[in-house]
Amino acid sequence: MQSNQPLHFNLVAAAHAAMIEHGFQPDFPAGTDTQLAAIQAHPEAPAIPGIQDLTTLLWSSIDNDTSKDLDQIEWAEQLPDGRIRVLVAVADVDARVKVGTVIDTHARSETTSVYTGVKVFPMIPAELSEGITSLNENEDRVAHVIEFSVDPAGTASDGKVYAALVRNRAQLAYNAVGAWLEGSGPAPAKVAASADLAAQLKLQDSAAKRMVGGRFQHGALDLETIETRPEMQADQPISIVRQQTNRATSLIEEFMVAANGVVARTFESAGVASIRRIVRVPKRWDRIVEVAAGLGTTLPAQPDSKALNDFLLAQKAKDPDHFPDLSLAVIKLMGPGEYVLVKPNEPSPGHFGLAVQDYTHSTAPNRRFPDVVTERLMKALLTKMPQPYSEDDLNAIAVRCTLMEDGARKVEREMQKRIAAVVLHPRIGQSFPAIVTGVNKYGTFVRTLDPHVDGMLVQGGKGLDVGDKLTVKLISTDPQRGFIDFAA
Fold first, then answer.
1. What stretch of H or E contains 474?
2. Mean pLDDT value across the chain
């Protein structure tokens, strides 16, 4: 029986409850308003002696269409020797939120903003992360600038970090910029109105293309998972939209990887302890080898990111429909990322998936606490002041950040299922093309292809296996439990 009636379910309340269930404190503590009022009383950029004024550069930001917490802006210039000089300016949250204050203590406990699809639970108050500490368009902001130069082979060198005053000249979005760079869409209005901005973005794109080629040569993994977001109308989700990667998302990703590498190497050369973001060499490499063998490819017995990526690229070309599921399997077998303390003169475990050894999180301080810690360590180094954290402090923060990031993933995953259950409820009785994504003792799991939604096959489907394509009929949804049930 088909249902055309929308389902009235309080997703925001469910998100709030999920936050508490997974160890978060979604409401800011007493004293926050007092500290926030003191910060807001002086909204102008704080005066810093000797700071460089780079407000005349044609900075721009590229982020999601709905992003309000802008952490970084970019600028590039062509050098006479063929290299491209890239500057990434990162918001100086520490200029407003000091160590040990009420807001800082809350951020240290939460460690991350959580994006549930229906509500953002910010690590620091939105009045800061979307206001005074955000690199908003046409506002002067203090920032840390991370600089590097990219040669034609994609190698980044001449890394340095310094404080500067900056101004975002154009807030742009991934989808529009990506389509324009790829030639599949018109120039965004701000780009169409400025030949200088168009040239600036194309130069940044050239630098990023060099860098992605260089990283893949060293074994960075080309993975493609299916990520979705709800399309909202009057605070209610009405559809599920697949988020696409494009040249603009790649541009920002390459710049962030390079910038984080510059920061890590700066700490290393100065003998400063820091928090690194790592993905260890896979403990379940043997299972990755088995998966590849089942698809006709022999991988080395020892972990080899270059060989793994060659296999992934071949499979992507051979079977694009199943590639997201293969990517997800590889990601799970690699294991989750984690934060660790790296002491001076100690080797970092590195980041297996990115094919880099020197990697820290430094480019998103409005939404991640490790990035705030990193900018405080850098600020102390640049100003020759004592480091604000002991090694024991850094280790405790790293452990907490790893724990809470896992909690954030669980909250976001649960809410994706609940949102999908609400969106699909009026379509009970309809049929959808689908693919089998899993078969185990609990049942057969499928993913519909439009919209991209995961559910269980509770009727029919005997003898199906992973990868089989079929048509399924939606028979029920349960937003509270995040259940979506289909029949074959």
1. strand 469-478
2. 90
Does domain 428-487 fall into CATH 3.20.20.120?
A: no
Residue 3 has pLDDT above 60, yes or no: no
**Global model pTM greater than 0.85:** yes
d(C-alpha 111, C-alpha 397), whole Å:
9
Cα–chain-centroid distance for residue 374?
Answer: 17
Find out whether 415 and 14 touch, Cβ atoms under 8 Å: yes
Q: What is the domain partition of the chain in residue ranges?
A: 11-279+339-421, 285-335, 428-487
Per DSSP, the residues of 21-77 read: HTT---SPPTTHHHHHHHHHT--SPPP-TT-EE-TTS-EEEEE-TT-----EEEEEE
Of 361, 408, 366, nearest in space to 125 by CA: 366
- Rounded to the nearest 5°, which phi and psi values hold at 149? -120, 140
Cα 267 from Cα 447, distance rounded (Å): 45
For 126, other C-beta atoms within 10 Å of its C-beta total 15
β-strand partners of 120? 115
Task: Write down the residue that tokens 């936050």 correspond to.
Answer: 19
- Residues 224-250 pLDDT 10s: 666 788 888 877 888 988 887 899 999
The b/e string for 233-247 (b: 16+ C-beta within 10 A; e otherwise) is eeebbeebeeeeebb
Helix or strand run (H / E) with residue 483: strand 483-487
**Contact present, 229 and 117 (Cβ < 8 Å):** yes
Among residues 47, 58, 72, 203, the alpha carbon closest in space to that of 146 is found at 72
